[in-house]
Amino acid sequence: MKVTTTASGHVTEPEPEHGSAAGSGSAAGARAAGTSSWRLLLGYVRPYWRVLLLGGVLSLVSSLAGLAMPLLAKGVVDAFGRDQSLAGPVLTLTVAVVLGAGIGALGRYVLERMGEGIVFSARRSLVGRMLRLRVSEVDRLKPGDLLSRVTSDTTLLRAVFTDGVVESVSSVFMLVGAIVMMAVMDGVLLAVTLAVLVLAGGLVGVVMPRIQRASVQAQEAVGEMGAVLDRVLQAFRTVKASGAEDREIAAVGDAAREARDRGVAVAWLSSIVGISAWVSAQLAFVAVLGVGGARVASGAMEVSSLIAFLLYLFFLVAPVGQLVQGFTQVQSGLAAVRRIREIEDLPAEEAAGAVPAPGTAPAGVVFDSVVFRYGDDRPVVHQDVSFTVPAGGMTALVGPSGAGKSTVFALLERFYEQQSGTVAVDGRDIRHWPLAELRAALGYVEQDAPVLDGSLRENLLFAAPEVAEDELRRILALTRLEDLVARLPEGLETKVGHRGVLLSGGERQRVAIARALLRRPRLLLLDEATSQLDAVNELRLREVIAEVARETTVLVIAHRLSTVTGADRIVVMEAGRVRAVGTHDELLTQDDLYRELAATQFLTSA
Ligand SMILES: Nc1ncnc2c1ncn2[C@@H]1O[C@H](COP(=O)(O)OP(=O)(O)OP(=O)(O)O)[C@@H](O)[C@H]1O
């Protein structure tokens, strides 16, 4: 696939040549999507073609040994009938059985190993792609569904080449071989057999497309169940506090039931195919026994040939069953590939590569006539935003909820791109910065300061794993976290738990600041927590911000009076515009909205 990089540094890919499975209703569209799914599937198997070939050859050799078995059995019967020694034919038969089974098992192992390799590379490439998706794309996706694409859909790829392609090829080989051998034995009996089998074949042809549709729906249902479950786990405490457990259990149960129903539909259709293959084989067996018995009685056929023919007939049953199973596996695999491809087709950011050191000098920011909306169908969030943050010191952004303050940070990090206007960091349009370098120059502390599952040390070094111990100690002192480290049972190595449950809100915020500072940002973006902090934490946070502002530029979305009074300048935003800029004292006299904000929102935490 051709990938191009735009002037802005964004990687763009051509529109998918074919509509996705969900999008294309027409038969031609579905065919085209099928073709490209195959191409994608082949892409996964390409690195393993030698292994696939080896596995395929081993399976074929094992099938050949299987095909020889009835002939060798006929040899045993003939030797018995002619009063010859049985040792030779029995030994040959035994060797063929043992060798055939051994080679078959080895072939199976080789293919299964390859299947695991394919799942591994599909997962690696999908996760690699997922983490590079643009934030705007991920906003639209459901995390649970994404998870199921990485965990469950990729698993289905394993069986495509093992149970699917190779088994099907060796089944066709067995089938053709058995039919040829049957033709050699007795043409009349073959005609009887084929007449019965063609009837079953027609039924299978009708059911197969339904199996394909049901497989896609089954996988979508599993994805949906993941999405519902994720919703519950994300808001676990809210679910409990709202007494909504029963309703949510029912919702997840509904999704699970849907997944079960779709799975049952696949099983039902597969069993129709399986049973018709089995019944037709039995019918063929009875017919062959009747007609063959008559032919043996009339002397037109030897009894050993009838026995060998019947054995070949039994040989037909297994490959037909495998073909059916193989076809189902391939259908599920293709459906999985389509779901994986939907993610791989989404626009991604440029790859990080080596990040040049962004320097350490504080960087300024300029927003110039920025207009931005989150999507074409969304309202304009930044109507016309212009302001300047000089390098060094602290600038506070204030304004009512929904004014567009957090969006300023999202644009600076280039999570989204403005529709018009310019955003510059250190005098350079951010679209001209290599993305990784830009992000390395910024430290970003989110409002809810997420803590990742792992130790406190892992959390602190998340953005800068190579940082020296003295620098870590310096930042711990700067962010007033030394007490916390001393208090935790295992110090820095203490597991802070999923979502940082061991830490208070204020501590979480300071851990997030320390994490950002350890990367030595030239500009710290701090979205202050709105939650109330106790007096000690409030004071510590204020000291930390003031001290950091001596080293670098700090742009803080402020929710506390104590923060804004310490700021060198304050930018007041309202409804997607900047309405005033000044110091606290200036704005108190000049700007009504600021005076009101200071009197209401900020006053509680003076
Ligand atoms: N990812 C998003 N997708 C779509 N709309 C969004 C997204 N993030 C924010 N918005 C919308 O953009 C508007 C501005 O949001 P923003 O978070 O920038 O405001 P804010 O001033 O930071 O508010 P607050 O102080 O409450 O956090 C809001 O109406 C919000 O609903």
From TrEMBL:
GO terms for molecular function: ABC-type oligopeptide transporter activity; ATP binding; ATP hydrolysis activity. It comes from the Bacteria. Pfam families: ABC_membrane (PF00664), ABC_tran (PF00005). GO terms for cellular component: plasma membrane. Residues 1-28 are annotated as: Disordered. It is found in: Cell inner membrane. Residues 365-600 form the ABC transporter domain. The keyword Nucleotide-binding applies. Gene3D superfamilies: ABC transporter type 1, transmembrane domain (1.20.1560.10), P-loop containing nucleotide triphosphate hydrolases (3.40.50.300). Keywords: ATP-binding, Cell inner membrane, Cell membrane, Membrane, Nucleotide-binding, Transmembrane, Transmembrane helix, Transport. Its main location: membrane. Belongs to the ABC transporter superfamily. Siderophore-Fe(3+) uptake transporter (SIUT) (TC 3.A.1.21) family. This is Putative ABC transporter ATP-binding protein. It comes from Planobispora rosea.
